[in-house]
Fold this sequence. Notes:
Blueprint: H1 4-18, H2 24-33, H3 36-69, H4 74-94, H5 96-121, H6 139-144
Helix pairs in contact: 2-3, 3-4, 4-5
GO molecular function: L-amino acid transmembrane transporter activity
Transmembrane segments: 41-65, 71-94, 101-122
Membrane topology: Multi-pass membrane protein
Amino acid sequence: VNNPSKFAKEKNNTKQATHPKSAAEFVYTEEAFKVRLLSFLLGWIIIFSGILSAATVALGFAGYLTNLLGIPLEILLVIFAAILIVIVSLINFVGIRASTWTNIIFTLIEASGLIFIIIIGIPYLGTVNYFVLPIGGSFGAFFSA
């Protein structure tokens, strides 16, 4: 498998197919190593990583929102992050159907934004040399992306 994310997805699908239970990681680790403490710790690590991921995304969103609104207060960063977590939690509490529709709506918004950028760029096709670096620009930044 050439793509690491594809490998992770296939590994996770295999794990869930061989152990079709809730908390597949716990069951998989338990059956592989026969150490219940290790499975227990892995379950808690997965819970904490989910919490940290949600907090990171919420703080990133709040940072962008405070910059967009021009509000320099740091306390609002935490408040906006908490509001986002509450909203997402409510959507999940309502059910899978609400969560699915929310995902569909935001995917359509994102895709339409990308299509809009492509449409705006169509008149510039063939008129720009993409291999010329900007004068005084950062050469390293070009290759770091």
